[in-house]
Amino acid sequence: MQKTFQKLKQDPDLWARYWIREQVIDAIRAYFKDLGFHEVEVPLLLPAPSTEPFLEVFKTELKDDQGNKWQAFLPSSPEFALKKLLSAGSGSVFTITKSFRNGEGRSSRHNPEFTILEWYRTPGDYMDIARDFEGLMRFILTFKDSPRRSNNLPTRRVLEGRTHLKYQGKEYDLGSPWERISVAEAFQKYSGIDTETMLNEQWLMAKGKKKGYQVDESTTWEEIWDQIIANEIEPKLGQKGPTILYDYPIAQAALAKKARDPRFAERFEVFMGGLELGNCFSELTNWKEQKRRCLVDLAERKHLGRTEFPMDTDFIEALKMGMPETGGIAVGVDRLVALFADTSDIANTLFFPVSELFN
Amino acid sequence: MRANQLKTGVFVLYKDQPCAVVKCEFYFPGKGSAFARTRMKNVKTGNVYEYTFKSAEMVETVDVETVELQYLYKDGETLNFMNPRTFDQFEIPASIFEGKDKYLMPEMKMFFNFYEGEVIGVRFPLKVTVKVTEASEASAGNTVNAPKKPVTIETGVEVMAPLFVKQGEIIIVDTETGEYVSRA
């Protein structure tokens, strides 16, 4: 099978699709710099990565010339590093960096090594981030089509004009405001499940079973909840433009602050065209609660047989200094690029997709 | 089988209907165990379903017989194949090939899936090695950037090939994309 670099040599028309990555990344930088955010770099070699129990990590070893050795990991997200800087007083920051996830199936939506954008607005909360995201998407759309090397690149303030994006044969409107629907409303509207049932383990399992989902003694509330989201709710979201699905049950938002209704947390995800584009929280700033959740996660990792590693104690020390009120989000840049390149497989936008490197 | 063993090409029973898995991707929601996001095609009706399974749940598989057959000849919309071991002959509707029958050549072998005696699918070779029967000498490519020209292969199909490909040469064609791959 021909590899991408060979295809590009044979068919130079293909380059146009691959340059969209560069345009999207240039646009992201221009947008956040214009908003006054600092861009920061984060390490790709860590003594302790973040603790999500279900994500498998890449483990390696750092050695020095004296024969000293340290276990080291590639990050699954830049989150902890950025929160240390926020606690130290950086103000609003963003990073465009690589992150890594191991042990996952090959997929058209995900590469084991991926490019992630995270931005944190302070002071701010999740709905401030939603407005940033609305502006960012329209800015990329305008920027991408502006003449290259022009001195008149659009700034964030001149965003009149196009709001329509064509993706996989459908038109999407990126104009503000995007559709917003809470998780509770979505369960009621698309799945016919009321909030009390959704949050009650036994009731939701019973309801799930009635709907034809497989439920046995090992099935968890999370599994049925996720399965209803995947089969009944997600297909209804982001059909005409992006949809913001917000206020997740507390159990589904380990790093978020509680919402006004304390059964929910201030988290949202953005969906469009069958893609999940971003995951946002009003960030948890309480170090004691954060430490407790990290320890629970690490215990669960052990139980699940995932690679074990210590807790990032620097992260907790940083939070003790006082993390300001912050809204933060992780956006998969590869998916954004696929969206603006109008392709359903992110591998079509990567010069070196994993399937060509390791087969 | 468990849903975590699902993959493209497996036949399963979904809502009591025999279905071929045409796409299967695993993912982890931020918090939660793995799920298999699948697209399935009903082998009787052609209807397509999308469904996300928990990776631990049990999925019933369908007994599908797989037989290697050899192509003989075309008769209208019916293609005649033979089992080279038993010499049994089979009439296969052209629609099974989803357009790839244009690459069929006598004696070509491939695997077919049968369900309750009826053919429901074929594993068509990903690449075919074919002779170029017609190629212009001219170097008049379509653009300067992508110098290619149409050539005709022995099955009568036109393929875009690099300018250096000549009549009588043997080339390899990708049957998924219909694109020239290389000289054989």
TrEMBL record, chain A:
Keywords: ATP-binding, Ligase, Nucleotide-binding. Residues 20-353 form the Aminoacyl-transfer RNA synthetases class-II family profile domain. Pfam families: tRNA-synt_2. GO terms for biological process: lysyl-tRNA aminoacylation. This is EF-P lysine aminoacylase GenX. One of its GO terms (molecular function) is ATP binding. It comes from Candidatus Collierbacteria bacterium CG10_big_fil_rev_8_21_14_0_10_44_9. The keyword Ligase applies. GO terms for cellular component: cytosol.
